[in-house]
Amino acid sequence: MDQLTGFQRDLLYVIAGMDRPSGQEILDDINSYIDQPVTHGRLYPNLDTLVEHELVEKGQLDRRTNYYALTPKGRRELENRQQWVNRYVEAPQS
């Protein structure tokens, strides 16, 4: 996970929260969170990177639409990341 950008990690969270979303569904969701609109030209290369790292599976819904889903490796990496984040976010204040 440390080799990923923050945007790529955000994409993993979005994919984890949806059931085999299409690229457009991911784009719509991430655009509701990020101030600067995300373009297709930014989204798809980052999704491809996640596929190359074997964190995300890319499949075909129909001739024009792909879906994305976390792989078991992607789920483990995301869970490990979340545990690490929780150690600091949920840490008692001194």
Automatic annotation (TrEMBL):
Residues 12-79 form the Transcription regulator PadR N-terminal domain. It comes from Natronoglomus mannanivorans. This is PadR family transcriptional regulator. Pfam families: PadR (PF03551). It comes from the Archaea.
